[in-house]
Amino acid sequence: MLDTYELAVHTLTLRQLGTAEQLADINGLAVADVEAALEKAVSEGAVLAARGSFMITPAGRAFLDGVYPSAFAALRADDAVTEAMDAFETGVNKQILSLTTDWQTVEVDGDRVPNDHGDAGYDAKIVGKLGRVHEKTAKVLRPLSAADPLVERFLDRIGTALTRAEGGETDYVSGVRVDSVHTVWFQLHEHLLRLTGRERPE
Q1: Residue 176's pLDDT is what?
Q2: What is the pTM of this model?
Q3: For residue 1, what is the DSSP state?
């Protein structure tokens, strides 16, 4: 698996721009460890720093591309992982994308229009469905979460977003300025693709 330095740089492929604190929230490392790793990565040209935030460079991506095959060799050779990813892509990932569309839009006279979230019952129904998909996802990804604790961390963060959405904080379904279900799901998917060496489906 990835060491602290590699994981800190890797996290910038999941969140394109972030502070050390934001990256630590994703990867579970201590903020001080992330800061030290980023300082080293900046000095080596793998990461750029700007106004307290960081972003990965092409050199950083090339570095990770060289690390992944050996770091995740055992995981990529595991048939249970391959089956889990197939089930993820063809099942729960498509369900989440569909439910996000249903959350953002509603059907009126046969046309899809933006959801103004004036119908609390409609919104609650979508959040409930997202919760059930989240539960299913934990089962589907069990071979991956057993091999990589970061997968479980993503699932926990999605659960936290769902709890806030259930409490009426609607931004936590698909908002881009918070750790919403949609935002964290995108990060989870990107992480899974890098673990398994797959390309994001079109």
Answers
A1: 93
A2: 0.95
A3: -
